[in-house]
Specification:
Number of domains: 2
Shape: globular
CATH topology of the largest domain: Rossmann fold
Number of helices: 13
Strand content: 5-15%
CATH class of the largest domain: Alpha Beta
Largest sheet: 6 strands, parallel
Number of strands: 9
Distance between the termini: 55 Å
Radius of gyration: 20 Å
Helix content: 40-55%
Order of helices and strands: EHEEHEHHEHEEHEHEHHHHHH
CATH architecture of the largest domain: 3-Layer(aba) Sandwich
Length: about 290
């Protein structure tokens, strides 16, 4: 299979590197060319556009920020759609609106190409380690074709249903992660005001029922009071917005999620949106006014 990867950001870059180290990667593209410079001294071609990345590629992986970025990369000028071959598979690993995914999939079918949605969880470290959880939506035949390559990026790959299902699974994941981070922020703020040492508190609770991957991955951010992303607040807010939009479409309410949306929107307004999402602790402890 000829493999291309589009989007070399915080998550996409280590994911593409894992494909490269496995000998599977033939092309890359990134809107900011500097982020692709590593490949200039390899046998991987740096494409000038998404269309060029798609030309001759059997599988095109995409990892960009939001719904509009995915639409631009696939359907925009010099997008994947204009360069893709018949029978090619586009694997969108971004976290976007699942209904947008379905719409793009319909358009790709007109080119006899297939779209798979495969958003991920595990953060930057999971991308580096190749240990991401990957939630896959699409037809079984196409999913089986991409599975060996997903295994180079993730340690848990689950085919959850037809196209769009991966996106809905990711929204559920992001709601849980947001609530986990919010609960950690409030619990550790209470602990701070009570004179507890964060390292000792972590040792006391992380093996009990309060323990979680969220706590394990983010505890050092709270201890060091450093919030380099990671996963940015503004990107998590995008996922929360999509989750609440999906809830509205299904005529249901997610009341705590709505509150976290307010917190994240306020953080953006305070220029905290590019911090890691664990900075909800920073917000609660220093900025939040009830």
């Amino acid at each position: 299979m000829n493999i291309a990867f589009i989007g070399l950001g915080i998550m996409g870059n280590p994911m593409a590197r894992n494909l490269y180290k496995s000998g599977y990667l033939q092309k890359v593209y990134n809107r900011t060319a500097k982020k692709a410079e590593f490949y200039n001294t390899t046998n991987v071609k740096v494409a000038d556009s998404p269309a060029q990345a798609a030309e001759g590629s059997d599988i095109i992986f995409i990892m960009v920020a939001d719904s509009q970025d995915v639409e631009d990369v696939i359907l925009g000028k010099n997008g994947v759609y204009s360069g893709i071959d018949k029978q090619s598979i586009v694997v969108d690993m971004s976290s976007i609106n699942p209904e947008t995914t379905k719409s793009i999939g319909e358009k790709l079918r007109k080119k006899d190409a297939t779209l798979i949605d495969a958003p991920v969880s595990g953060g930057e470290q999971g991308a580096v380690d190749g240990s991401l959880a990957i939630m896959v939506g699409g037809d079984s035949t196409s999913v089986s074709k991409i599975f060996p390559y997903l295994e180079k990026m993730g340690s848990k790959i689950t085919h959850v249903g037809p196209l769009g299902s991966g996106g809905y699974a990711k929204l559920a994941n992001q709601v849980i992660v947001a609530m986990g981070l919010q609960s950690i922020a409030e619990a550790f703020y209470l602990a701070k005001q009570s004179g507890l040492d964060f390292e000792m508190l972590y040792e006391a609770i992380h093996s009990g029922l309060a323990g979680s991957n969220v706590l394990n991955q983010k505890i050092n951010n709270l201890i060091d009071e450093e919030y380099q992303p990671g996963f940015k607040i503004r990107l998590h807010l995008k996922d929360i917005n999509n989750a609440l939009k999906a809830a509205e479409e299904k005529s249901i309410k997610l009341p705590i999620t709505e509150k976290i949306q307010f917190f994240m929107e306020d953080m953006n307004s305070l220029d905290l949106g590019d911090l890691d999402h664990s900075s909800l602790y920073e917000y609660i402890s220093k900025y939040y006014k009830s």
